[in-house]
Amino acid sequence: MFPILYISTLAVIAAICFILGFHVLYRDRSSRINRLFFINSMLLNAVIAFTVFIQFSPDAETAGFFQSMYNIVLIIFLLESLYFNLVFTGRSLNRISKVILLASTSVVFIIFIFRGDDLLLLTKENGVWVYELMNNRFWFLLYSPLLFLILLIMVSTLYRYSRGASSNKEKKQAGVMLAFILTSCSAGFLVLMIMPLFDRFRIPLLTPYFFAVYLYGVFYAMTKYRFMVFNIKDIAQDVLSHIQDAVIILAPDKRIMEMNNSASILLGAGSAGLKGTLFTDVVYERDALDVALDSVRHSRVSLKQRVTYKVNPEAVVTDSDVSAVCDRFGDLSAILIISRENRGVNHFKNYFKLTAREMEIILNTISGVTNVEMAKNLDITKRTVETHQCNIYNKLGINNKIELLNITSDFGIKPL
Question: What is the pTM of this model?
Answer without folding.
Answer: 0.60
